[in-house]
């Protein structure tokens, strides 16, 4: 029984005054907590005394920005590729299938339609789920997740003074997400929030947003996703790596089936649909988008250099602003160019391997193997630099790892790539034996680049041989000599005997007598058109001597050559390095009535909403008279029309019936093979050679430009001519509006004409007599 003391205590505790004070205390504590919470939320929202870190302003909230990949398009509307840090392309809500939306809601936020950004019921249930071990997701609503993704609350907004205090960081972050969720709900509809989420979420495999995820895993548009495919993608957002169907197929399947079960549980699908979906195996069409894929990858890299500079000047972000870049590339011509390079280079590589079978191809000018070639070359690689940094005073360790074999993939013409067991030294030797190529096509009338192949394989060989690479152009530089001659009064019909010309020794330079390709001189007279067609060095040398090397250099500069050109006797034979990009632009001047036009790569840039940001116009300047330009196209046609022309195979072997201007080029030791081709609305440049100048064929049978480079042009043009949708102009080359002042019918000056009769009456320069010629032949 209770004692009298116990009863007394009970009576005191239950007295009305004491009970009221107890209740009041509870209410005060509760009210204080509420007030403190409100003040805390308010303090966080205004970043009081900079204690909690920044919050997005109203403008940012109304225009939330996620990183969008910029897209680059061809002139004919094909998507060439993207520039991105996060590969994301937005999609409209109307393009989202309903079962994708249903799966997301059933899995991530089943009360999404009911709450206003914060799911209080879901938060209250968290302790129960934690106690029972049944946690399936956190308490964050879809709106909170959108806030976290869009505003990077856990990365960018953690710059307050209290953010580094243990325990407070997550509370502050969560508070910000609650505040932003409520604000998002006030500013956007539920549909807009769902669209934001699906356009922002990460799905793994470098896929951000549902559009890229559907393409990456199933090669589909979101609207075409089947129920089981949509469920798989919904399952990924909770753990992109953990549930990746490529690396963890069984785990991914279980996650997919759980999503389908959630959809059944909440009535989004019925039992038959559930049973049918879970019974299906995972069937992927998996391909990760990366910079190695897509149309014209070498071109896209070159364009990105210009775009980055433009973005810097205009405060844009090429990799996040979702720009639309429209280029000049024709996707059909690009495909034909890549196909032509691959088809020809595969054959040339086989011949090259047979040519040097069992031997080392790196040779000096006398044909001797270059000692320590590979050991010197390896020192220029990133791997060597890393090893030297790791073992600064231990050459033996560096040598050990350079010769240690690893399993790796290498480029091969048989299947694109193969897995091999190689050491870094083996790999270097393998790649040094490869022949390389570059090809460019542009419209000479407006400067638009139509095709750009910078190398044989972008994935394994990033170096661009169109603009980045510069090599000796050989005889493809001769037109700069002949255009100077034509411009100063020489006629295409002007005749000159095929005899040697010697440049006397000067300024420490020995006397120089250029040889013809065959090493001999016929003594016959040839017109300038014939001489250029046959690429006779003797007559070119005579013109250089008459005009002066400085004149040749000035014409090359006038026609757009920007690389340093040395004014030496050998200038007419391409002694100074140039790029395909420069040379193709220069040749285009002949077709464009003497107006030089800079090669143009981009037509316009738009923002993500299609608003025009920049439109590009061709850069031009008058370089030649219309007549001189036309006469040079007539001269260059000689290579395909004159007997003995170096490009006659285009008429015979390829059977092109159209007017084509052409010029081959070969350096003295066959290190570089070139070809330039002209039609009324297309100028093309081609180069083939080894990575190092010391690696090449040993004879002209394989190494000359007409054999090593010209066929790429022929294969390309065969496809271009056959594709009627391109509408290439088959000619003839248009004549100047005014009658020509110089004779072009050279037939009466050919074989049988006397020396006196070979000089056209309108020739402005006097002929050099035969007895004035230097007959010395070295």
Polypeptide structure, described:
With 778 residues, the chain is of the alpha+beta class. 41% of the residues lie in helices and 11% in strands. The chain has 28 helices and 18 strands. The strands form 6 sheets. The protein has a 5-stranded mixed sheet, with helices on one face. The protein has a 5-stranded antiparallel sheet with strand order 9-8-18-17-16, with helices on both faces. Helix 4 (98-108) packs parallel to helix 10 (227-236), helix 11 (249-265) runs antiparallel to helix 12 (271-278) and helix 19 crosses helix 22 (549-558). The longest helix has 31 residues, at 16-46. Mean pLDDT is 87; it is low at 752-778.
List the helices and strands and how they pair.
Blueprint lengths: L3 H10 L2 H31 L11 H5 L7 E4 L5 E5 L14 H11 L11 H13 L9 H10 L16 H20 L2 H11 L1 E3 L2 E2 L1 H9 L8 H10 L12 H17 L5 H8 L18 H18 L9 E4 L3 H25 L17 H5 L4 H9 L4 H9 L2 E7 L3 E7 L1 H9 L2 E8 L6 E5 L24 H10 L7 E3 L27 E3 H7 L2 H11 L1 H10 L21 H12 L3 E3 L4 E5 L5 E4 L4 E3 L3 H16 L7 H4 L8 E6 L5 E8 L2 E9 L9 H4 L1 H4 L1 H13 L56
Parallel strand pairs: 1-5
Antiparallel strand pairs: 1-2, 3-4, 5-13, 6-7, 8-9, 8-18, 10-11, 12-15, 13-14, 16-17, 17-18
Shape: elongated
What fraction of residues sit in β-strands? 5-15%
Separation of the first and last Cα atoms: 136 Å
Number of DSSP-assigned strands: 18
Catalogue the unreliable spans: 752-778
Q: Give me the number of helical elements.
A: 28
Mean pLDDT figure: 87
* Largest sheet properties: 5 strands, mixed
Question: For the largest beta sheet, what order do the strands appear in spatially?
Answer: 2-1-5-13-14
| Rounded Rg | 37 Å
Query: Which structural category do the helix and sheet elements fall into?
Result: alpha+beta
- Percent helix range: 40-55%
